[in-house]
Write a structure and sequence with these properties.
Number of helices: 8
Shape: globular
Low-confidence stretches: none
Number of strands: 3
Structural class: mainly alpha
Strand content: 5-15%
CATH topology of the largest domain: minor pseudopilin epsh fold
CATH class of the largest domain: Alpha Beta
Distance between the termini: 29 Å
Strand order of the largest sheet: 2-1-3
Largest sheet: 3 strands, antiparallel
Mean pLDDT: 96
């Protein structure tokens, strides 16, 4: 079954003032929609056409070379953004609790240290890309990836990602990526991240 653009789980303006409605509208309705349509076009007629996007991204090396880059970029863009929308909430922010909080303290020393690592990776990503909190071999780690690459392609489990492509923030924050990342922490849904952690741990 062809990929479909998922609905946002909240209104375009629900993340105001941290992420503005106009950015959400363009980011979801234009950018994400384009990733979906281009991924579908590339996979149409292949044995991968009905394969879940997670499995496609885990198997990039098995794809025909002629479509591999297009699929990597666009199926990756679809997967990354579907994860991104559901990682945020109008009731987000704050700090994680429970097992996730304990794992963060164990891996990073504190929640503030985790935030600093996510921030540093996001700011250090040259050009477009993502900063990720992942589960790697049962351990939490922070890493970045260029373009629409995703840690799932390296056998890791993405728990949370912040989009640092300029289209994610330029309308409101212009070139101020640090201010955008700082604001984004106010809408992170740590309950959803904790659910992903529990399912993968």
């Amino acid at each position: 079954m062809a990929y479909e653009l998922p609905d946002l789980p909240y209104a375009y303006d629900a993340l105001e003032p941290h992420i503005d409605a106009e950015t959400m509208r363009f980011h979801h309705d234009k950018h994400h929609a384009t990733y979906v349509s281009r991924a579908n076009e590339a996979l149409e007629g292949t044995q991968w056409a009905d394969t879940p996007v997670e499995e496609v991204l885990k198997s990039l090396d098995s794809l025909p070379e002629g479509i591999r880059t297009v699929v990597r970029n666009n199926a990756g863009g679809h997967y990354n953004h579907a994860l991104f929308w559901t990682s945020m909430s109008p009731n987000g922010g704050g700090a994680p609790t429970g097992d996730l909080a304990a794992a963060i303290d164990s891996a990073f020393g504190s929640f503030d240290e985790l935030k600093g690592a996510i921030r540093a990776r996001g700011l250090g990503q040259f050009g477009s890309g993502w900063s990720w909190l992942v589960l790697d071999g049962g351990k939490l780690a922070v890493e970045s990836s260029p373009n629409q690459d995703n840690p799932i392609s390296q056998g890791k489990v993405p728990l949370l990602g912040v989009d640092v492509w300029e289209h994610a923030y330029y309308l409101k924050y212009q070139n101020l990526r640090p201010a955008y990342i700082e604001a984004w922490f106010n809408v992170v849904d740590w309950d959803v991240v904790a659910q992903r952690f529990a399912a993968a741990a």
